[in-house]
Amino acid sequence: MDLSNRKKMYLWAYAFISAPILGFVLFALIPICFSVYVSFTKYSGYQAPEMSGADNYVRLLAEDPLFWKTLRNTVYSALSIPFGMALSLAIAVSLNQKIAAIRFFRTAFFLPTISSVVAMTLLWKWIFNAEYGLLNNFLGWFGIVGPAWLSSETWAMPAMIIQGVWGGLGFSMVMYLAALQGVPRSLYEAAEIDGANVWQRFVRITIPSISPTTLYLLITSIIGAMQDFPRFQIMTEGGPNYSTTTIVYYLFQNAFRYMEMGYASAMAWMLGILLMVITLINFRLSRRWVHYE
Amino acid sequence: MSGAAVVVRHTRKQASERILKTVAYLFLISGSLVMAVPFLWMLSTSLKEEGVIFEMPPKWIPEPFEWSNYAFVLGEANLLHGFMNTLIIVIPTTIIGLFTSALAAYAFARIQFPARNTLFVMLLATMMIPGVVTMIPTFILYKSIGWIDSWLPLMVPGMFGAAAAVFFIRQFFMTIPSELEDAAIMDGLNPLQIFIKIMLPLSKPALVAQGIFGFLGGYNDFLGPLIYINSPEKFTLQLVLASFQGMYNAQWTYIMAGSVLALIPTVLLFFFAQRYFVEGVTLTGMKG
């Protein structure tokens, strides 16, 4: 290709990528820079930001017990991740066999994933109802008197975890199913000849072979769980006594209810840094258990 | 190994496989029941009379069927209006965003140009930054240009394309053989013509899958409208649905009828496009 032709190609390429790059600058880069700045100011969103140094960060770390409580709540809510991943792997392994009605099963498990958070949360709000709810009615069959799930400080978060696991199964199931289909049959056949039983084959072949997907799910689920809150807002509004206020919900309230944009921005950055650290640690640890072909 | 030993081993293997399959079926059937029961209850409640919904043990088949719940939700409660608003927002945003993403994906996959990799990595980096970090400044930005309480914040950014979509479609373009393009270049087609006449038709499955994901994301979005929309007449479907909680306190028949209606489009979409979903996911799996 001669020079003028090559330059022409460059122009085409830059024209083609211009929209997402412009979008990146306008809707990511500028807001990120501004967010750093605002986190060091007192800013209500109405008057101009007022420099306040590290005040927001000091308040966050030293003077606001609710910050720590909501952080703990968020970590607690993330318990749904190991349960959800183990369950979805079990479902995916079951579905990976030659099974009848596979479309039906796949749809059943995927249904919550394509449903809106709003509809699903409203539905579960009723399921958890102490007197008229489906869950306590079901527990009653076994002679168990269920708790007042959502209005109990002890049980509200476990309820949110149950709802979270139920709602998240479909996505990880599909990812695992895709990964399982990529495991070479020959590995299983070789192990079988060596006399490995089903469990040994699962632990020695299946789990290592799909470990990249496990890592991917782990990282995206942690990031998702740390940022989760619309369903908390609809189901419990963070209560009772802040027991289900997640950190992002607390941040959201600070920003849009109390109009403390500066303080909320500092909180967003603390969370952002925390997420980056967790992701980094995850990647580091993953070297020991993730196997790439 | 004697012939008899092989036979024994063979039948034992068959037996253990049968047991495994039975366990798998039991697990899947009970699991899918747990998944489906809430939806069935939702459907059942949506067709009940207000007075009987708290009856315990619950009656699964309502009598009589109270279709008026649906009429109310669609009519007076403005769900249909919210639905139209959502479509007006989501359809053009998804289509235009898909086009701009695919265009960029084509350049990143096929054209050599300076800083290509740097720009691509930069774009991908936006996927890593937690959304909460930019939530507040983005709100302030839109407020300063007067976009609050309008649909623009829900539409315009999406039309610029999305990093995840660029990445996804690029992976697909990489697998299309370049001989097709070479022939087109010989024929004197320019890159835009190649993109439209060759790349787009060949990548239909990826585009459809990505388009469905985009549509579902917009259709089910709650946080965006919650932050930016205040006027009830501009509410999206999800906002209308959430507002039922307050407006018709404890009127679960309406809430459930609304939820059923909101689900119908996505369930239909999933049912008919299941192939694209699953293939699409496999495609981007961890092999990329």
Description of the structure:
The complex is a heterodimer of chains A (293) and B (288). By secondary structure, chain A is mostly helical. Helix content of chain A is 73%, strand content 1%. Chain A contains 14 helices and two strands; from the N terminus they run αββααααααααααααα. Chain A has helices at 3-38, 55-63, 65-77, 80-95, 102-114, 117-127, 134-141, 156-181, 185-193, 198-209, 211-226, 230-235, 247-256, 261-289, and strands at residues 41-42, 50-51. In chain A, strand 1 and strand 2 form a beta hairpin. In chain A, helix 4 packs parallel to helix 8. Chain A is globular. With 288 residues, chain B is mostly helical. Chain B contains 13 helices and no strands. The longest helix of chain B has 44 residues, at 3-46. At the A-B interface, helix 1, helix 4, helix 5, helix 6 and helix 8 of A face helix 1, helix 3, helix 4, helix 5 and helix 9 of B.
> C-alpha Rg of chain B, in Å?
25 Å
Average predicted confidence as pLDDT of chain A:
89
Hey, roughly how much beta strand do the residues of chain B contain? under 5%
What average pLDDT do the residues of chain B reach? 85
Q: Which percent band covers the strand fraction of chain A?
A: under 5%
Would you tell me the structural class of the helices and strands of chain A? mainly alpha
Overall form of chain A: globular
Report the helical percentage of chain A. Answer: over 70%
- For the record, give the distance between the C-alpha atoms at the N and C termini of chain B, rounded to a whole number: 44 Å
Return the string of H and E elements of chain B. HHHHHHHHHHHHH
Percent helix of chain B, as a range, is over 70%
Largest sheet of chain A: 2 strands, antiparallel
Number of helices of chain A: 14
Number of strands of chain A: 2
Order of helices and strands of chain A: HEEHHHHHHHHHHHHH
N/C terminus separation of chain A: 38 Å
List the main descriptive attributes of the protein structure presented here.
heterodimer; A: 293 residues; mainly alpha; two-stranded antiparallel ribbon; 14 helices; 73% helix; globular; B: 288 residues; 13 helices; disordered C terminus
